[in-house]
Amino acid sequence: MIDYKKYNLDLHYHSPYAGGCSKNITIPLLAKEAKIKGLNILTTADLFNEAWRKHVKEHLKYDQKEDIYYFKDNEKKKEKTYFVLGCEVECKKRVHNLIYFKNFDVFDDYFKKLDNNIIGLDTYGSGRPRLRFNCKEFLDFSLDFNVLIGPAHAFTPYFGVYAHYDSLKEAYGENYKQIKFLELGLSADTHLANLIPELEKITFLSFSDAHSAYSYRVGREYVCCDLEKPNYNSIKDMLYKRKGKIEYNVGYNPQEGKYHRTACRSCGQIYSLSQAVNNKYRCTLCNDIIKKGVKEKAHEIAEKQGNKEHQQITNRPPYKHLVPLAEIIQIHLNKKQINHRNVLEKYNLFVSKYKEIDVMFNIPYKDLEKIDAEITKYVRAFREGFVVFYPGGAGKQGKPIICFSKEEKQKMQEKINKEIKLKTIQKKLF
Asked: Class of 5-255 per CATH?
């Protein structure tokens, strides 16, 4: 009888060597912030970059018997932070994929044979390297090695596989069934992706894709799962052999994601897909380009694959929507930046006593009120589902609005719907 244990995983974020990322990201900082968040297993990220790879090797220790990598400063501690070797890569058409390795021997073999197919290795931004392969070539090449690969933020415009292809088979060829997981991305959730018939047997994963090491970014999306061990083999067994299981996914309400709805990329005005099509993807307010959203794209693909009624394809583990604690405090204090000094002061009061994940889902209100009663009111409202969103789209983040009753929530939702509708009819589309 296998003794499975629960672990919280975030296996997608970046190092200082990927474009647009914080320069203070380190393995020690990631390990520290993971404990604050309540994460057990992280990824090395950006392993193809030589400088980052050297840093990773300096700070990880390998237990050969258990086949586990962990932060070496945790060696004598009961609660370790474990790491899986991994990276995000960009194939032709700018499609991003995640790849994970059992150990450095496998990585070295893979890297050596891949070398001539990497563009701009160890240049700025090469933490997420570009490959000369298209998705099919990348998958076919990778099947000769003991690696795990799958689409990163699969529905995201510009860099998601479904932004460029209408099916995984079209993108990855006849071997597409060897793909066992798909990362949802911040603008999608299980409910949306589960409309697509070809994904029936593929596991959905939610990871942060963070560009900072701090706990208010890392783990903003994560997976809670049962594994035999916190290592590559157990994750692979879960995906391939159903040994262990996903307990639940945690992540943004997709309305908060930057690409959830079809919208104007300049002014952010929301459109239905039919409105965008009939207006030839030009905004009626500012005449800039309208970008198709993840919601509309997922519905479109579902219909092309035969799910015209938008029915859920199969039973999935629960998906828990999350507004991170620092963001809730930011809303309460009405600050523009999540890392504002006042926000972080309040945030640290909570996470110095409890893991953030427990604050958001588990700690009794009476205990949280001892830290800050006003913020606890907001946490309670979040837990009770009194959050509405002005939806994001075309690169503009959605905005969560916290209410304190069902009646207030309903009125706010009606106000948002009316505002979106009023704007779109200022100039007639039809």
From this structure: alpha beta
